Amino acid sequence: MNHVQSTVPPLATVLIEPVVRATLAEDLGRAGDITSDAIIPATTQSELYLVARQAGVLAGLDLARLAFMLVDPSIDFESLLQDGARLEPGSRIARIAGPARALLTAERTALNFLCHLSGIASITATIADRIAPLGCKVTCTRKTTPMLRHLEKYAVRVGGGSNHRFGLDDAILIKDNHIAIAGSIQTAVERARAAIGHLVKIEVEVDTLEQLDQALALGVDVILLDNMDIPTLKEAVRRINGRAISEASGGITPDTAAAIAATGVNRLAIGWITHSAPILDIGLDALNPA
Fold first, then answer.
1. Span 121-128, mean pLDDT?
2. Using CB atoms within 10 A as the burial measure, which of 102, 112, 122, 287 is most buried?
3. Domains of the chain
């Protein structure tokens, strides 16, 4: 097991605390944890461990820590690993000690964040590892869980991927419907250039080689090659020839990623890594320290 710390900067507390608070409030409802309050004496203290039950990449530990600390600041949360660590079944991630009621109250919120984000980081790492020798990188999309985009995109970075635009306001992406309504790629690009500042990049989605040639002639920054088969992708990369960043998209999965990356594209834009990544199984267990 590789006990590494991610080189990705952690998300600031001001960014993660609101969503953790809201999630705890959703779970606590109007009366709090009536099960733990009824069964566990208020004075009971416990020591539990976050433990990986399958191999993967850890992400979201700060959110798990915050979930416990917001329920009871007296909880002692000791991180044994850091985000970016490669996990094996049985890897101990953190030791958590304190009032038993509070530990059980925070458990589900902490695990929901940790399992979900670690799942995204893990599948991203699987793809990134496969395509890295081909000089290609995996990037995410806007196909994210509502209100969790900043967290999911963080998990993509932890897994070795890169982020596409965060929202509608940080880059121009001219898609098929924009082109259809504007009337042509040229009209859409010209209108975009007239409206944006000099630091905003322009990306155009193309479905055919004819559209690709039009976009190249306009000197756009990035070209999204959408739903092209392997031979067409290879020809598209040949025509681009470094004049723009090339990005393949459309139903890419971990099983198809390497073959698509082998065409020479610079990026694989994969919505799957955020909207369909399975969770990584992590539990909160009572263990005796080794």
1. 98
2. 122
3. 13-122+278-285 (3.90.1170.20), 129-275 (3.20.20.70)
